[in-house]
């Protein structure tokens, strides 16, 4: 059974940083594309970033240059490093394996 568990969310001031983690069990993150999505209140879920099996990365325009997705195969974990956070980054962040399996989400709130 595949399980994805996100952690690392919280409350941070504008301009601050957070690192989200997505720990996988029952599967191997290195052999699937891994995705981070987010959903703000009243808005549709949007793709934030993804990393391919080969390690290529792609980002939404709104986070390009501020967020970095990375994968640690030894820890079977995918990360989302978020820098220069803005209030509009406030959302529940979800990780997904191959857009098939999903975590429960972690809340990120950017506010002064």
Model description:
The chain is mainly β and about 110 residues long. The protein contains no helices and eleven strands. The strands form two sheets. Strands 2, 4, 5, 6, 9, 10 and 11 form a seven-stranded mixed beta sheet that branches. The model has no long low-confidence stretch (mean pLDDT about 95).
For this structure, the quaternary state is: single chain
Counting DSSP H or I runs of 4 or more residues, the number of helices is 0
Average pLDDT works out at: 96
Number of DSSP-assigned strands: 11
Distance between the termini: 40 Å
Structural class: mainly beta
- Rg, Å, rounded: 13 Å
Large-scale geometry: globular
Q: What percent strand? A: over 45%
Give the proportion of residues in helices.
under 10%
Give the biggest beta sheet.
7 strands, mixed
Q: What's the order of the H and E elements?
A: EEEEEEEEEEE
- Name the poorly predicted regions: none
């Amino acid at each position: 059974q595949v399980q994805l568990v996100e952690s690392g969310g919280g409350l941070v001031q504008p301009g601050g940083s957070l690192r989200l983690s997505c720990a996988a069990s029952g599967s191997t993150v290195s052999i699937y594309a891994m995705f981070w999505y987010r959903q703000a209140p009243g808005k549709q879920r949007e793709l934030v970033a993804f990393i391919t099996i080969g390690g290529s990365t792609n980002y939404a325009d709104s986070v390009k240059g501020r967020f970095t997705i990375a994968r640690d195969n030894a820890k079977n974990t995918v990360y989302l490093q978020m820098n220069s956070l803005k209030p509009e980054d406030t959302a529940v962040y979800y990780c997904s394996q191959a857009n098939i399996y999903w975590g429960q989400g972690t809340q990120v709130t950017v506010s002064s």
